[in-house]
Amino acid sequence: MKIDKDTPFCFTIPGQPATKKNSPVLVRGRAVVLPSKAYKAYEKAFRKELERIEAERGGLPHYDGPVQLWARYFLQDRRAYPDLNGLIQATQDIISDEYSHKDHRKTLKRRWILADDRLVKSLDGCRIAGIDKDCPRVEIYIEPLEVDPEQETDPAIVRLIKERMQQGLF
């Protein structure tokens, strides 16, 4: 059975893909790990494109069950060649719900495509697919996965299954 009734979702985000490349920076005399400027610009452009897609399609799907993520990255050139794991992590972070943290409380700031990046249970097929100097981009495909209540090991998904069963949704 699938937790999410949404159909698979595919979309393309134009622009040079970037990793977070977190680095320590001094903020008010304390060492804090922050994402790179290139990543911040990429995240802003990526989310702006998601908002455009949302307006064009009348909304974005929202997955709160296990999914497969497939991403193909096309880079502008070979300079500063990124690592695939960093690209995947950046993609998952950007498409996951955005929260603000204040007084040890987590508050939803903006709903995106994934309720949490830990819902990605399969990354089969993700790759740096090539160089396209005229159109660097990432092509993303997300598909809800079947879940077996007896075999599931993720506590958050087990809790979600139980909630849905109590509501009669399974």
The largest β sheet comes out as: 5 strands, mixed
CATH class: Alpha Beta
How many distinct helices? 3
In total, how many beta strands? 9
Measured by DSSP, the beta-strand proportion falls in 25-35%
Give me the CATH architecture, please. 2-Layer Sandwich
Characterization of this structure:
- This protein is of the alpha/beta class.
- It has one domain (9-146): Holliday junction resolvase RusA (60s Ribosomal Protein L30, Chain: A, 2-Layer Sandwich).
- The chain has three helices and nine strands, in the order βββαβαβββββα.
- The chain has helices at residues 37-57, 84-95, 155-166, and strands at residues 9-14, 23-27, 30-34, 67-75, 98-102, 105-110, 120-122, 127-131, 137-144.
- The strands form three sheets. Strands 1, 4, 7, 8 and 9 form a five-stranded mixed β-sheet that branches. Strands 2-3 form a two-stranded antiparallel ribbon.
- Strand 2 and strand 3 (30-34) form a beta hairpin.
- The chain is globular.
- The protein starts with 8 loop residues before the first strand and ends with a helix.
In short:
26% of the residues lie in helices and 31% in strands. With 170 residues, the chain is an alpha/beta fold.
Per-chain topology:
Elements: E1 9-14, E2 23-27, E3 30-34, H1 37-57, E4 67-75, H2 84-95, E5 98-102, E6 105-110, E7 120-122, E8 127-131, E9 137-144, H3 155-166
Parallel strand pairs: 4-7, 4-8
Antiparallel strand pairs: 1-9, 2-3, 4-9, 5-6
